[in-house]
Structure prediction request, 569 residues.
Amino acid sequence: MQWHATGAVTLKLARKADFADARTLYSGGNSAYFLSGLADGTYYLELQGSGGETSAPLKLTVAHQSLTHALWLAGLGALVFLSTVAVIFRGARDE
Amino acid sequence: MSEADALLPPNVGWALLAAFSLLWIGLGVYWGRRNKSFEDHALAGRNIGLALGTATAAATWITSNTTMLAPQFALQLGVWGMLAYSTASFGLLLFAPMAGRIRALMPHGYTSGDFFRLRYGRGAWGIFLVFTLFYSLTWLVSMAMAGGILLNALSGIPYAWGMTVILGVCVAYTMRGGLAAVIGTDFIQSLIIIVGIVIVGFAVLSHVSIAEIHANLSAERPALLDMLFPAAIMAIFNNLLFGLGEVFHNNVWWSRAFAYRDGVGGKAFALGGLVWFPVLIAAGFIALASGALNVAVPASDMVGPLVVAQVLGEAGAVAIFVIVFCSLASSIDSLLAATSDLLTEDIYRRMFRPAATPARLKSMAQYVTLALGVFTWAVCLPRIGTLASVLFFAGPLVGAMIWPIVTGLYWRRANSAGAVGGMLLGAGAGLACYFAIGFYVGALVATAVSMVWVLACARLSKSRFDWAKLKETA
Prediction:
């Protein structure tokens, strides 16, 4: 998240559009915040200035990659890695 | 980042920079005084022992990416991301048996390019040179850029000045002292890095408990604790194979295999890998603690320095400044030395001046080091690109070289068609997936496609390679 503001701001995150369940992510004079690790779902972000003025809410949708897809790729990776290890430790048998 | 936001005053940053610059250059001049020939300069007389060998393997692999990107991985991909990054130590662990084999097969070898030329011929050698130079220059540029960015963030030193000083210092002592200076400074740098990271790890744990970190992550970043986090699962083997490809092909590691005393290579690489593994866990753990410590992170690659400064104050900022400087120098010097040796041996000598004297080759390697430094400086000055994305673009290229190298070292039936096809098809498929899916699958797909092609060609091959061809003398 990046923003332009003069003075300190408060960044809030909520699951509900009316910010009834909002929690503060950051308060201070920075102009960016790194957000990660959210579960799947819809979130709303809002920036509040020190004078009480607020930004228009930002809607954020989190949708992680397919787990099935990830497991297939991990399986392929394990196969390739173990095959590489086998070639190295088996050594030069046909020398 | 402005001076006001920096963790240290600029004058403290400049004082630290000046002190360590003088130390590294002085040591480089001292260790380089005995270098007379190209073999002394490029391979430290082929006489590196176990302690220096272990330290240089670990220190070279501890880069700006270790201290900055490992925490970034943990913050983006969670516990699996932290483990995924630490799997890069397998590159060193698996290169250990290969180093002994390389030394036995090529007692007079200088570079990984020598292996490709003698084992697979000029076609495969040309592709290898393109791939490895792309990777090496990308790595070099990304680290020099990281140097400027980090020194700016840590102490407010302007980006262009920080980048110029780090690069200039490494060029100076590598030109003067060659591999002996690189390995000697790596020894000191590795001690500083490891002691620094251990102190930082304990300091973080003294400020916040594991239970508090877990509670904070569960509430605010639950996906980071999720054992079924899809992107993190994809990243595990991709990162592992990327690390294998980086180590297996690059002359940074081959030059060390040639430079170590007989019987030292295997032990040195294995110990280097074991030393490296926990460093990554500690670096990642620092990032996961950021939420519990209430550290606001404006950019993911700054999480490490910010947490350390929060926990240890100005002393922590000084420590992270020194650790960052050491980790950058220990990798930039190695890359400068190994890439200049590759260009001198594989291009200058093998393509243009086969009869060049050892003294002439040594001077040429020094000029090439200087030219590489100037080139890197010119590319870095405009400050384009980001730390992670630039380097990950090379993942498919290095992944595609794993199987041609491994089978070329152990199987007589591995052949040129397999090596050329494996590198081209693997890199092509990997790059396509890199752009279609993401950075976390490029190396994996490239290695898999290359493996299938190399295995098919070896299976159908009737030729049997004569290992004696690798024993070429200068």
